[in-house]
Structure prediction request, 247 residues.
Amino acid sequence: MDNSLTPLRVGALVQARMGSTRLPGKSLMPLPLGSATSVLSHVLARAQAAKQVHAVVVATSALPTDDAIAHAAQACGVAVYRGDEQDVLRRFNEAAQAHQLDVVVRLTGDNPAIDPGYLDRAVAAHLASKADYTLTTGLPLGANFEVLSQQALAAAFAQATAAEEREHVTPYLRRHPELFRLQTLDFGTAAVPATLRLTLDYPSDYALLHLLFSTLPPGFDLAAVGKLLRLHPWLAHINDQNTQVKV
Prediction:
């Protein structure tokens, strides 16, 4: 049998937990718009809207404090995998195996403005190039994401030893271009500035996201965000003082 003719199963694994040193419980903060009611529920709805994604799974820890994450995901009709709190690489690898995923889109539960259109474009490009790992750039912080093959994920799990490589899932892949086929997709566009923060780490991040989700229509895309910013440039300054830790 020619396995190359078998369609690959693409799954979005959404990393989420209640513990956060800067903003505890941020994934379940209320963000009402349409049928979604929390930051996490928006992430899940947008992942489900991507045509190239066949399954959406929340990967959270087995700690009792993350029961709330599991319950919220299940209320959205999304599967849950629970594993090691600190070794997120192990959690992702086990979740991918448990749900028989061939390709993994790595998302996090604090980025509610991901654009399904860009998800589809990235997955299509990843599959066409037969890359092991695809990183998107050029979009606002919180709107970029990663796509990786299950084989690359399993290799990273088996070989990564540094603490940050276990906690952040993909650094091992990026640090070893001699072992993996790496691809960067630059989605940069004048329509929406890459300097904009659409992630949730600080109260001022929440203030901007709440304003956007209160102003724009349900299912808004990044182009709509860019249009609103051109009308009201001051919006970008609500949280531009915040910094991001790079891994």
